[in-house]
Amino acid sequence: MGIFTPFAIQALSLPIALTGSDIIGQARTGTGKTLAFGIPLLERVEVGQRRGAPPAALVVVPTRELCIQVASDLTRAGSVRGVRVLAIYGGRSYEPQVEALVAGVEVVVGTPGRLLDLAQQGKLRLGEIRMLVLDEADEMLDLGFLPDVERIMAKIPATGRQTMLFSATMPGAVVTLSRRFLTRPTHVRAEMPDESRTVPTTSQHVFRAHAMDKLEMLARIMQAQDRGLSMVFCRTKRTCQKVADDLVDRGFAAGAVHGDLGQGQREQALRAFRSGKVDILVATDVAARGIDVEAVTHVINYQCPDEEKTYLHRIGRTGRAGASGVAVTFVDWDELHKWALINRALDLPFPDPPETYSTSTFLFEALDIPAGTKGTLPRAARTRAGLDAEVLEDVGETGGRGRGGARSGGDRVRGAGDRAAGERAGRDRGPKGAHAPGPIADKPAGRPRARTRTRGAGAALSAVGTPAAQPDPRDPAAAGSSRRRRRGGRGRGGSPATAAGERPAGGTDAGGADAGSADAGSAAATG
Predict the structure, then answer these.
(1) Is the pTM of this model over 0.85?
(2) Residue 206's CB: how many other CB atoms inside 10 A?
(3) Closest Cα partner for 111 from 163, 69, 74, 156?
(4) Mind giving me the DSSP string for 425-483?
(5) What span, in angstroms and rounded, lies between the C-alpha atoms of 501 and 523?
(6) Terminal Cα-to-Cα distance of the chain (whole angstroms)
(7) What is the pLDDT of residues 372-426, one digit of tens each?
(8) Which domains are seen in the chain, by residue range?
């Protein structure tokens, strides 16, 4: 792994966890919590079990991206002993995961939904689990996964089980969970009680920015001196995709990760970001937890986070493992109250962010942006391969959300799954006002059925082809009745032509047969 000096959480947790005792580990994000539970887990599992043997260790994580990363780290660390590690998460097809379970694995890393689904189907046997890890437990609480976690833990025998819980913060619900499922745990906190909750190697900047000028500011910041990989965080999925598309239009190599994308597209963007094919990753908070990418130098909060925990995890993507980083936060006028709460909770020195625009001199000076930088990347600086250079893997996605995906080359495209779904939908119901294909649509259209009213002698006689007797025009009651019928024909579905005494082509007008008959009789009497 290339690690020679352990971090504080690792040095404190490893001696306790290697003895098989339950442990609660608490440390700031980016300080090595994965190996703090990963090394004891890999050392204590038995390697080379028979084919089809159930797993001996289970790691539960809140998000798919974190699941992929933790499984990758454990695979690298366990390669010396030959430990087989399997990642189980939603968005992918079931078959490869079930086949790997049948072949036999020692460690399973998964998200709560897919783990519980496979356990209920009998594909994942939890009766032999001897080591259980809950990673980022506070995030599972925020996402509403704690009930699923409790159901998973209820399926694992409590006797002889080692349980390790790791988290950056420890809210009350997580403490209650630990008291219920952990046996006399040792609480390890790798920081002083009065220590700052932010990483000291991260330089923080906060600017009051107008919504119409944020993109111009962002484009200039992305051309700062010595900028490496950068992450831009947005609060909504729509804003996330829009910012990524606008950056691509300005010449930057950018990708997006949010919930409306398919799993294959999310993994494509992360692979391209890790490999350097794109140097800007625009993401919602789904990527703010535990994602560890080397050489991330800048983190931009395009939209102000809702609370201090989200702020900490966002800016924790830079300044990891002792490296330095830059964190920039845009605060709009309607977000000042949110920022005031975050600033007070974290005791930050930014109570009143300065009003800043893309042409402000101090913006260029604070972030080391070359003078004269504009909002479009010069063509000579467009050296990244881009998102299209990364292969889009067919992961056999499940579910119907997010298959359409993001733009590719400036346009929004649909996948084959979307086209097939659209064709099926067209066969089932068709668009509004159109006939669905099939036997029903092939049937020749007949003449509209004329509806005959039973009120009025004129309508009755017209239905059998006999001219109706006309009322005396000098009779006021008869004249009023005729006027009511003439007006009623238009209001009850007739056309203006029918009201004027013209019969529609092809027979009586649907919904206005009596009006047409009465008017025809009146025209005959007048002639």
Answers:
(1) no
(2) 23
(3) 69
(4) HHHHT-STTSPPSSHHHHSPP-PPPPP--SSSHHHHHHHTT-PPPPPPTT-HHHHHHHH
(5) 7
(6) 104
(7) 999 999 999 999 999 999 999 888 776 555 444 444 333 333 333 443 444 444 4
(8) 8-189 (3.40.50.300), 202-413 (3.40.50.300), 415-445 (no CATH), 457-526 (no CATH)
